[in-house]
Design a protein that fits this description.
heterodimer; A: 326 residues; alpha+beta; six-stranded antiparallel beta sheet; globular; B: 280 residues
């Protein structure tokens, strides 16, 4: 079970009814994770976003199976003795949960003292690939997404009595009172859809923020805010939890899969590029585009190409494919 | 649709008022409805009003930029530059109304020069914003701009035998800088090709052409300072000059409307509508 620390309120099956729990999520339009475990080692995890099941997994010790929401409900309802645990969680935890569900085996596990945790994280930070670190204390849990190549991680979570994000999360982890923890590292793999989703999400934010930042430099806040309002309006009309505040992108949406994600990102990037083009002109937009791609890392720019995130913007000609993504 | 309406209406009103000013100027110049001094005074009020429009619009546009916005530097320099020109025009007109023919070199030249310095500073900051590689050579280009302008002016004076004439020097210098600003504006138009930010730069090209026409009339002695003669060539030159200021002001007004209401979007929203069925 992932995120044990926030699952302190695990309730026994079959007395606890899954439908009641799902009803509460729906009523509150809440997001989180429901996990059901039986004594016969059957485990089902449900990712819930804004009251609706977006992903469901049947998990065993060394494998996982992506199942439909209906099938998951059926399995849980048929379980005999066991527990049903639920935790309301932010988007980052749900992205991590999807990765953990689809990649049951970590690349590395070890036991460390809390005091030496920062040394371990520094070592993992230097690795030449993207990875997810899970840190488990007896009563708390931490998650850090490490970009690799020495880049300081920006996304982290610490869950104990509550959920703490980003910079606050890391400082809480380093100062946690429990002396030892289990650390595990999961390495990025293009074979795992959840990793691809995370990378696409990160690439979308990187490229959009790079374009917004340059656009702000060239035109000022008034036009940047006009663009932000357009992006926010379109995201809002589609009920995507994506918003732009000045030149920062906040993407909290959990998509059911890569196809929905890519479709949404393509629309938002097309709207952005067309707006920028109408103000700066096609020629300067080309420069802004090249600068934006230079700002994002190689893995992110490859993802932009792989999923044709810019296909609505007229920026995926064969020539650009060769030069920009080489 | 509403966005387009908001943008077009102020521009249409602006051009209606601009056309009225030009017609008024022509009528007063040709019909001469007032007594001598009064006719000139009214004529120059219309003239000063017209050439003040870029300074007025640029000042309003500047207010829409945040203090930390990098493009604010461009518009701040333009604001100072264009007000410098307004002061220069005002001094020049005051000389005509109070003294008759203004001295060949007078205080207005200082303000013209000041205006040119600040406007080229604005252009320089715009180049810096365009980023690499433009930023690398923009400082050298700004120095080269002024160096070349002075050199060309001196060469022109040497060839015309008026090397030690400060009045001729300034007149030629302003003409050459106008032409060079026109050339820079062409580069800006190319950089912003197809974008809304290209609009304000068109006016500089028209201004350069208007100044070439004025310089030609002035050099050939065809430009009559005296308005009583009703000289049509002078009227045409004045109208072209005033029109160039109106084109500049309309470009700045477009920039104001762009900042105030945002651009008109076409392609991106169309993609959004097609893929989602939601009308943006």
């Amino acid at each position: 079970m992932f995120f044990r620390s926030v699952h302190a309120t695990a309730r026994p099956l079959p007395e606890t009814r899954l439908q009641d729990l799902l009803g509460e999520y729906e009523k509150d339009s809440a997001s989180g994770l429901i996990q059901a475990s039986s004594s016969a080692d059957t485990r089902v995890a449900l990712i819930i976003f804004k009251g609706r099941i977006t992903n469901a997994y049947s998990i065993s010790t060394d494998s996982h199976e992506h199942i439909s929401a209906g099938r998951a409900v059926e399995i849980i309802s048929g379980l005999g003795a066991g527990t049903l645990a639920s935790a309301r969680l932010p988007a980052l935890a749900l992205r991590a949960a999807k990765i953990l569900a689809e990649q049951p085996q970590p690349a590395e596990t070890l036991k460390v003292t809390t005091e030496r945790l920062h040394i371990l994280l520094d070592q993992w930070k230097q690795l030449p690939h993207l990875s997810l670190a899970t840190l488990t204390w007896p009563t708390a849990e931490g998650l850090i997404l490490l970009p690799g190549y020495g880049v300081t991680p920006r996304q982290g979570l610490f869950m104990s009595d509550g959920v703490h994000e980003s910079a606050e999360a890391v400082s809480r982890m380093n100062g946690w009172f429990e002396g030892t923890l289990d650390a595990a590292r999961y390495t990025y793999s293009s074979e795992i859809p959840a990793w691809e989703e995370y990378l696409t999400h990160r690439s979308f934010i990187s490229i959009l923020e790079a374009v917004l930042n340059r656009y702000k430099e060239l035109t000022g806040l008034a036009l940047l805010n006009a663009l932000g309002r357009t992006i926010n309006r379109i995201a809002n009309e589609n009920r995507w939890d994506v918003s732009v505040i000045v030149d920062r992108v906040n993407d909290q949406e959990i998509f059911p899969g890569i196809a929905d994600m890519v479709s949404a990102y393509r629309i938002l990037l097309a709207v952005t590029y067309n707006h920028v083009s109408s103000v700066l002109g096609e020629k300067l937009l080309q420069t802004v585009h090249r600068e934006a791609l230079a700002d994002v890392d190689a893995l992110a720019s490859r993802t932009v190409l792989k999923y044709a995130l810019l296909s609505g913007t007229g920026f995926l000609t064969a020539r650009q494919t060769e030069t920009d993504y080489a | 649709m509403l966005n387009g309406f908001i943008r077009k209406r102020p521009l249409a009103i602006f051009w209606a008022l601009g056309a009225l000013l030009l017609l008024l100027y022509s009528a007063i110049y040709l019909v001469y409805p007032f007594r001598d001094a009064w006719n000139d005074a009214v004529l120059y009020v219309v003239y000063i009003t017209t050439v003040s429009t870029p300074a007025l619009v640029v000042t309003v546009t500047l207010q829409l930029y945040d203090v930390n916005d990098l493009p604010r530097r461009v518009w701040l320099n333009f604001t100072i530059g264009f007000w410098g020109w307004v002061v220069a025009e005002f001094i020049w007109v005051s000389y005509i109304l109070l003294v008759g023919n203004p001295p060949r070199v007078n205080l207005s030249d200082f303000f013209y020069l000041l205006g040119y310095v600040f406007i080229t500073m604005g252009v320089y900051h715009q180049y810096l914003l365009l980023g690499q590689p433009a930023a690398r050579w923009s400082r050298s280009a700004a120095i080269l701009f002024w160096g070349l302008a002075v050199l060309l002016t001196l060469l022109a004076l040497v060839f015309t035998g008026a090397f030690f004439d400060p009045a001729m020097f300034l007149e030629d210098l302003f003409g050459i800088i106008d032409l060079m600003l026109g050339a820079v504006a062409l580069i800006m138009l190319s950089a912003f090709r197809g974008g809304a930010l290209a609009r304000p730069w068109r006016g500089f090209i028209v201004l350069a052409l208007a100044n070439v026409f004025y310089a030609w009339l002035s050099q050939t002695g065809a430009y009559q300072v005296d308005t009583v003669s009703g000289d049509v060539l002078r009227l045409i030159s004045d109208l072209v000059y005033m029109l160039s200021y109106l084109v500049l002001a309309s470009g700045f007004l477009y920039q104001y409307l762009l900042l105030r209401f945002g651009p008109r979007i076409s392609g991106g929203e169309e993609i959004h509508r097609k893929e989602t069925g939601i009308s943006a």
